[in-house]
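Tutorial sheet, problem 5. The three components below are modelled jointly, 524 residues in total.
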Amino acid sequence: MRWSDTGRLAALAIAVACVTASLALAEIPLDQRRSGYDNMSAATKAMQDEDTANPASLLVLDGEALWKRKVGEGGKSCADCHGDATSMRGVSARYPAFSPAKGRPIDIEQRINLCRTEQQKATPLAYESRELLALSAYVGRQSRGMPITVAEDDKTKPFIEAGRKLYGARQGQLNLSCQNCHDDNWGQKLAGVPLVQGHPNGYPLYRLEWQSVGSLQRRLRNCLIGMRAETYPYGSDEYVDLELFLMWRARGMTVETPAVRP
Amino acid sequence: MTRKLTRRDALKTAGLLAVGAATPAAAQVQSFAPGQMEAAIRKVLGEAEIGKGKVRLELPPLVENGNVVPMSVSVDSPMTKDNFVKAIHVFNEKNPQPNVISVQLGARAGKAEISTRIRLATTQKLTAIAEMSDGTCWSDTQEVVVTLAACLEDLP
Amino acid sequence: MNRALISLPKSVKRGQVIEIKTLISHVMESGFRHGTNGRDIPRDIITAFSCKYNGEEIFATQFFPAIAANPFLTFHTVATESGTLTFHWTGDNGFEVIEEAQIAVE
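Model answer (structure tokens):
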């Protein structure tokens, strides 16, 4: 553990704590919400906008091939039940969604695996595996340009609240919450880089830092590591609750999947 | 005498941070050799005289992430059978290895312009050199400042 | 598995200068990184790319570790006649990908 890192971020934490001690839950007004896209340079924006330049395009094409591949005991492909991928329009825009089978919301990766195990009678795909990301990117691509619309009803409200609690909870060695940076200090700089509001409107996305496509859970884990907090295992309820809250917080914003981010 | 150049040093040099830097615990990069860019240029182009001009090296002055930096090189040339760009070479100053890309063109290219994405270990200069069909060489140099993402990932 | 994505204009006029964009999936491991256990991560990059237009080489490149992962490269050529463009990537560990695209020239 480097003292320089702790020293710098601890100083920030103290400063932020002093400022936020007296503030109530400072949510961003709906009309002030900005996608991380807005902070990017023109060159990076161009990378996202053009299919032939977007490094995630290759994975989307892999997803297209996987969509048609017959797997499992029944030898069924996604296409056999769902037809053309255009039937997936709007699906990622409303995930995480409540699953009656699980009795709680699940995210799109879990939904894909539910199809694999229950319908295709195949083994579930590992988190962050190429196949799972490819399918998630392909399905997500069908919602590009659409507004985020996760359900806010009696079934999902308790989980949105659980996510909100996680979002506002101080954790880790630096005692920071997501809110400290992304609600209270967005637009200001951390290590020379502008703080984004942290909306999940482009996942899965190609992160330049990863040099590959990754899921929202991977990005949340990066945040937790950055905060020096313990990461939950992949697929934890905590991540899905947080994802649901974040998507609710980004309601109405446009899906950019597969996005590009620094 | 070379010493391990860390991202901390690079950011300090760039004047971006007053206190320390968030360096990833893993993945330390090997250091560069001072003067490596000049040496690499001589290795490729021998004793040829390299003029300034005709070449336009485009890079963002400040990049969000050194892993993926868009770069384009264009050379002012009619690209006819008698007057064309034979090759374009790009060199860097402070990566562990001084070559970036070498490209062979010809009159069939129509336009001497390429673009790609490169990796930059730290803030540094890059030089693009064009070899013309008449044997002359031309160049352009750019300085790029490299910053880091705030929440870096430790290797799993 | 889709390794490469190529884009060129759908139909072109004879003599027109066109831009060809290529994107290929590859980790481009520089060989200069050390892993968490201190071991060197060995180099694994694409080292060369060339494009042939109806069999004649019109463009060739040497890549070095400074090229970013999932190499993106654009270049130009004069549309002389209809036919086939062949794209050839080679690299470390026997890496080889060949893709073709048709070009229709009026």
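Marking note: The domain at 33-148 of chain B is CATH 2.60.40.2470 (Immunoglobulin-like). Full credit if you identified this.
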